[in-house]
Write a structure and sequence with these properties.
About 60% of the residues lie in helices and about 5% in strands. It has a two-stranded antiparallel ribbon with strand order 1-2. Strands 3-4 form a two-stranded antiparallel ribbon. The longest helix is centred in the middle third of the chain and has 26 residues. Keywords: Hydrolase, Membrane, Protease, Transmembrane, Transmembrane helix.
Length: about 280
């Protein structure tokens, strides 16, 4: 992250505070404007390099304002969730780094779709249809990459699933990964590419941390030694004890011990008292 720190000193003043708030507000306006006025506003916003080359430059940015669902109830729930996640990430990283994370996600998703289009949908008609079919998927995978970042930083935070069931973020992240794996296996070519590119910014930010989280052999040995120190030294039991003075092989490792044949019972003595004790009848 040293590179980001240098970039922040130079360009941090251009960062947008509360970026996720503006994105969620934009999606809210687009959704309700489209529902109430039966508008084709979405057709003016989605990412399409063909139309961008014709002068519609705004499509480089406006595709993030396309909601990933047309259900108002589900959208409001998702909007509040991702606004909270974005705010938490911005608080943890700072405004500039969060802006960079989201911007990288946008760039990787655009490049991924462009590569798919250039390989599989070269004619204008099929390319336009492809971008229309994928317009909402970009925001879906962008949000999922945000959630993964949040899960790494706050794995123990609990969400109330459906407002009732408490579940930790790390378990929801596991479901998130399963969803991404499912999209990678059974999705279209576009979906598979979006799954891959949506993880690139996450790996750039967290790849080294995830690798360091795996303990090396030396680290494992150190942890074992630490546990042993906390538990204290092992308890040693003496097998020989003088019946007169109580001396054992632990208190005097060089001493020898013998049983007395004249004592009635198994009485053991050190060499100092083997021939100098009162026999037990």
């Amino acid at each position: 992250m040293n590179f980001l720190d240098k970039m922040q000193r130079k360009y941090g003043k251009f960062a947008i505070p509360n970026l996720m708030l503006y994105i969620m507000l934009g999606q809210t306006i687009v959704l309700f404007y489209s529902l109430l006025l039966n508008s084709s506003l979405l057709n003016l916003l989605y990412f399409n390099p063909i139309l961008i080359m014709r002068g519609q430059i705004w499509r480089l940015f406006t595709f993030v304002f396309i909601p990933n669902t047309t259900s108002p109830i589900f959208f409001l729930f998702a909007a509040f969730l991702y606004y909270s996640i974005g705010s938490a990430l911005e608080h943890a990283w700072g405004t500039f780094k969060f802006n960079v994370y989201y911007l990288l996600g946008m760039i990787f998703n655009m490049l991924g779709l462009l590569i798919v289009q250039l390989i599989f949908y070269r004619d204008t008609v099929s390319a336009s249809y492809f971008y229309v079919s994928m317009y909402a998927n970009i925001t879906i995978y962008l949000n999922l990459s945000l959630f993964l970042a949040y899960a790494v930083l706050y794995p123990e935070v609990q969400f109330l699933l459906y407002g009732i069931l408490p579940i930790k973020v790390k378990y929801l992240a596991a479901i998130d990964v399963i969803f991404l794996a499912y999209g990678l296996i059974s999705g279209t070519v576009g979906d598979r590419v979006l799954v891959i590119v949506s993880l690139l910014n996450f790996l750039l930010f967290f790849g080294s941390k995830l690798l360091r989280s795996r303990p090396t052999t030396t680290q494992k040995q150190f942890k074992v030694q630490q546990r042993e120190l906390k538990q204290g030294p092992p308890i040693k039991v003496a097998f020989h004890k003088c019946s007169v003075c109580g001396k054992t092989e632990l208190t005097d490792p060089d001493m020898e011990f013998r049983y007395c044949s004249k004592c009635n019972g198994n009485y053991e003595y050190c060499m100092d008292h083997l021939h100098n004790h009162t026999h037990i009848e």
